[in-house]
Design a protein that fits this description.
Length: about 375
């Protein structure tokens, strides 16, 4: 039996105010094509179908198109809600969709629902565990068992009553660790400080494969058969070096498992470029990769540059962010006692950082004067 594992679609996401809908449409069409080639017996989507709990209309349409394409090819879909989704909204229409072999577990209702498939080796049980917070589990299991994410997930899994002689698959959306080892994370993921939301991989010992969502980098946790598929697209520059993919699970008889990652090629890559602006805008540099990519430019010029954002956007139309790395900027950053601690920065320092981040260039003296007067009128100190 073949299963196609993906997660963290984040349909409707915006990155640096750029809509990713065209890129998401392109990559979802690519995944449909992969499904047509691989011919999986089911597609597993491990949460964060949408990027926000109230998605924009275009995002809803795109997910509808994607699920309709898979259903039209006769491929069953098993999906769960993630921490970005509204469980109740995902539940809407789920009974009707189930008739077309699209099963979505949005809200947690006290048990982990199971769907059954079969092949020549017998039954495969697929369990669907939506993103679970302790507060959502407490009404069913009590406060004593659900004082942590780990406890809540273990209590939920106990309701599954696994058949040890069957092949058991879990689809889940949690932050999973292996003892003291934590998975690789990136800036686009939100994880609580101190590991308070972590679930140890030992909670999943009864499953032959655990299809995880939540983290954007494809990786295993503890054992090969507990795996994050990762997001199909890069959603922050901390993901720039990641290779995005979907995972194919091939189940043989009980205990036999093969995993394959199929790479995904985006419509536009997300990458970083670094150097003096003259070098970065030189024709030979621009021609070295797709200039339509989403770009973070790190400028190393020592002299002040007039309209760096305009110069860069003339050749990189999808410039998302500009940072500066030179002796002057390093001196400013190391010379302030406030570095690294926003609470110790003055309002002027905070606004200068905001302005530089948004415009790609430092404030002029005239702009500093205007903002200084506004801050003074508000009763704040500028230095």
């Amino acid at each position: 039996m073949k299963l196609l594992h993906l997660s963290d679609l984040h349909i409707g996401k915006r990155v640096c105010e750029f809509s990713m809908l065209d890129d998401q449409r392109f990559i979802l069409e690519q995944i449909v094509g992969i499904a047509g080639d691989v011919k999986p017996d089911a597609v597993l989507i491990a949460g964060d179908l949408y990027d926000r709990s109230i998605p924009v209309g275009e995002a809803v349409t795109l997910l509808d198109d994607f699920l309709t394409e898979l259903a039209g090819r006769g491929i069953p879909v098993f999906a769960i809600s993630g921490n970005h989704d509204s469980p109740e909204r995902l539940d809407f229409g789920s009974r009707i969709m189930r008739e077309h072999r699209v099963t979505i577990a949005g809200t947690f209702q006290g048990t982990v629902p199971r769907a059954d498939l079969s092949d020549s080796f017998g039954a495969v049980h697929i369990y669907l565990l939506p993103f679970l917070r302790p507060a959502a589990a407490q009404p069913f299991f009590g406060a004593e068992k659900t004082g942590s994410y780990d406890g809540a997930v273990r209590a939920a899994i106990e309701t599954a009553a696994l058949c040890p002689d069957k092949r058991n698959i879990l689809v889940a959306h949690q932050f999973v660790i292996s003892g003291s080892s934590e998975p690789l994370r990136c800036d686009s993921e939100t994880v609580s400080v101190g590991g308070l939301d972590s679930v140890d991989v030992s909670a999943f010992d009864g499953f032959d494969y655990v299809a995880l969502g939540h983290l954007h980098g494809p990786q295993k946790i503890g054992r090969d058969s507990v795996r994050y598929a990762g997001s199909p697209l890069k959603y922050s520059f901390s993901e720039a070096r990641q290779k995005k993919s979907v995972t194919v699970i091939e189940l043989g008889e009980k205990g036999k498992l093969e995993l394959t990652q199929i790479p995904l090629k985006p419509l536009r890559d997300m990458r970083e470029i670094r150097g003096p602006i003259a070098e970065l805008t030189a024709p030979e540099t621009v021609a070295g990769a797709n200039p339509e990519d989403y770009i973070r430019a790190v400028l190393t010029d020592e002299d002040e540059i007039a309209d760096p954002a305009g110069k860069l956007r003339a050749v990189y139309p999808n410039l998302m962010r500009i940072d500066f790395e030179n002796r002057r900027m390093n001196a400013e950053n190391s010379g302030t006692a406030a570095a690294g601690d926003p609470s110790r920065r003055t309002p002027m320092q905070l606004f200068e950082e905001f302005y530089r981040d948004r415009s790609g260039s430092p404030m002029s003296e005239r702009e500093r004067e205007i903002i200084g007067k506004i801050i003074e009128e508000a009763g704040e100190e500028t230095v």
